[in-house]
């Protein structure tokens, strides 16, 4: 009897060991990692952005979309409402998912109405209310509202529990508010509303998830924050254009492809950008500062330079152009100032020379009538004059013309001939002096007249 009990005990022990081994094999297989997927929970159709931003999720053998979604919601402290339909497991609601800042995008407000027999269904507008607030569930804001999911940009026609994800998949759980997914770009056969043309955001969603995986690392790179925020803005705008999505992806990739840069190299990039941004208002006092910023930029490698944004580089190039312009302007001003100073100096010199060499004023002593309608003028000799100019007019205060230039200082008379009878003539004399190639003139003399009889 005792021997039988021993054998029985050994058999039980062997069975328990076998069961434990089998369970460990099953658990091991179930928990075996087979890849990674990108997962996000989105509320773009009500203007609330992400409930859960794009996240890299480990994919295990046997995982379904349903359990991945349930796990990430639970991890972020959200409770769910779910049901089973003919298509399988259905996410009917998420508790406390509505933040109360709803704004229906204009592109949804302007969608076509849905005609269902005599029933006309209009798209929601700013008066729409969430009957389940603060939960976000089916029928929130509209009778067509509810949660849908897409995999790699396609909306499966089976429930989440029936879809087995593959490594690299992008799974987006999205809230539809109108057209049974038409506002998400999905054309449901019974939706009755033409689907919107929504940009393909899968690659950018995946790239943002990868960024979020090591955000601290990427943000060490100057300007990465701006590019990441730009990518999020583009993603969260329901009707972003495809070129904008592609542009945001390219900008983010430029940052993330530079993961071979050292911390020291990243710090050099930051220092260069700081030097450029510190330039401020450009004047000539900033010339050396701008030159230093250029020198630091030129010292960067081509990879580092790619991480200096075009806008930042434009600040530097514009500053350099401004310096060139200011220097040219200063040169023009300096030349004009120099010319003005030289002109002023020359004027002073000329005034000094004029004062020194201008002859004294002479005076007409007499005017006498001679035969044959002639007149003889006599004036006072001026010692510092080279000669004299004789002017004649038939009016006292105007119309004078030079009639004679006398080149000898000692000659102080002049005979005026061919005078007309019964006419009155007026005369005046001006002294002149030549010095250094310049002629200096004295003031006019007194006026003398003579009437011809």
TrEMBL record:
Domain Fibronectin type-III: 358-453
Pfam families per UniProt: DUF4430
UniProt KW Coiled coil keyword: yes
Keywords, in A-Z order: Coiled coil
PROSITE patterns on file: FN3 (PS50853)
Entry keyword annotation includes Coiled coil: yes
SUPFAM superfamilies reported in the protein's UniProt record: Fibronectin type III
Coiled coil ranges: 238-269, 316-353
The name this protein goes by in its record: DUF4430 domain-containing protein
Origin organism lineage: Bacteria, Bacillati, Bacillota, Clostridia, Lachnospirales
């Amino acid at each position: 009897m005792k021997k039988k009990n021993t054998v029985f005990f050994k058999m039980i022990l062997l069975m328990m060991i076998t069961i434990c081994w089998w369970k460990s094999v099953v658990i091991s297989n179930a928990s075996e990692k087979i890849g990674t997927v990108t997962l996000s929970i989105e509320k773009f159709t009500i203007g609330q952005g992400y409930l859960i931003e794009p996240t890299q999720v480990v994919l295990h053998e046997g995982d379904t979309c349903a359990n991945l979604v349930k796990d990430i919601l639970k991890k972020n402290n959200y409770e769910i409402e779910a049901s089973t339909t003919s298509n399988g497991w259905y996410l009917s609601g998420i508790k406390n998912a509505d933040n109360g800042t709803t704004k229906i995008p204009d592109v949804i407000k302007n969608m076509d109405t849905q005609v269902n027999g005599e029933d006309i269904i209009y798209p929601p507008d700013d008066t729409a209310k969430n009957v389940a607030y603060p939960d976000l569930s089916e029928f929130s804001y509209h009778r067509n509202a509810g949660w849908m999911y897409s995999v790699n940009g396609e909306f499966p026609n089976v429930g989440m529990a029936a879809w087995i994800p593959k490594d690299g998949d992008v799974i987006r759980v999205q809230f539809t508010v109108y057209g049974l997914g038409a506002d998400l770009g999905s054309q449901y056969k019974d939706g009755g509303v033409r689907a919107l043309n929504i940009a393909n955001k899968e690659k950018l969603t995946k790239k943002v998830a990868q960024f979020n995986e090591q955000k601290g690392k990427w943000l060490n790179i100057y300007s990465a924050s701006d590019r990441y925020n730009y990518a999020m803005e583009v993603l969260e705008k329901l009707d972003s254009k495809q070129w904008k999505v592609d542009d945001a992806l390219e900008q983010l990739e430029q940052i993330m492809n530079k993961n071979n840069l050292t911390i020291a190299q990243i710090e050099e990039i930051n220092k260069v950008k700081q030097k450029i941004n510190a330039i401020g208002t450009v004047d000539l006092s900033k010339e050396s500062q701008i030159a230093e910023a250029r020198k630091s930029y030129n010292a960067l490698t081509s990879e580092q330079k790619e991480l200096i944004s075009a806008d930042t580089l434009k600040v530097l190039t514009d500053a350099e152009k401004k310096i060139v312009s200011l220097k040219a302007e200063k040169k023009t001003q300096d030349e004009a100032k120099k010319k003005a100073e030289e002109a002023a100096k020359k004027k002073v010199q000329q005034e000094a020379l004029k004062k020194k060499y201008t002859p004294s004023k002479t005076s007409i002593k007499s005017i006498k009538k001679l035969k044959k309608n002639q007149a003889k003028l006599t004036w006072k000799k001026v010692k510092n004059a080279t000669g004299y100019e004789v002017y004649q007019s038939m009016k006292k205060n105007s119309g004078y013309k030079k009639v004679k230039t006398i080149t000898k200082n000692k000659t102080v008379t002049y005979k005026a001939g061919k005078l007309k009878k019964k006419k009155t003539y007026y005369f005046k004399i001006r002294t002149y002096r030549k010095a250094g190639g310049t002629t200096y003139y004295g003031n006019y003399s007194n006026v003398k007249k003579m009437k011809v009889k």
